[in-house]
Amino acid sequence: MIEAAFRRATPSIKAALAAAILAMAGCSGLSAPTQQSIAGLSPSGRVTINEDFVTGVGGGTGTLYYQGQTHPFKLAGTVVGPGGGVAKINASGEVYKLNSVSDFPGRYTQSTGAAGLSTSGGSDLWLQNSAGVIMHLQGTTTGAMLTLGRDEIFIRMAQ
Where in the sequence is the domain holding 55, given as residue range(s)? Predict the structure, then answer.
């Protein structure tokens, strides 16, 4: 139901709706994945993400590479905390515990980042959704953003 409403909304309403959903969902408490979460597992696929953040709310695109096929997706994200600033993230990495493309969309969280002013440099993100899919992303961040060390993104597959 939420995703159907998300598709029909105008772009500015979509961003506000995504931020509200993510803020409410942030209280649910998914555990933060780590290197130990994937010990002994082979990657199921790969992913690339490009995301822009302005005052703590972001949006972007990405591609899932799974079983020899490419699957484009859109994402909306938020940082928990003051969120002041502007940043751009370009990241790629492995996807684990993905049994089908239908398990990939949803809300991903990571809470292993440091609180404070996040500035340009390398990033190492561990994200997990409610289906148990884990992404380990590495990339670069340009710009600066105030954060409490928790990030969330909502992914939906592109049409």
Answer: 2-157
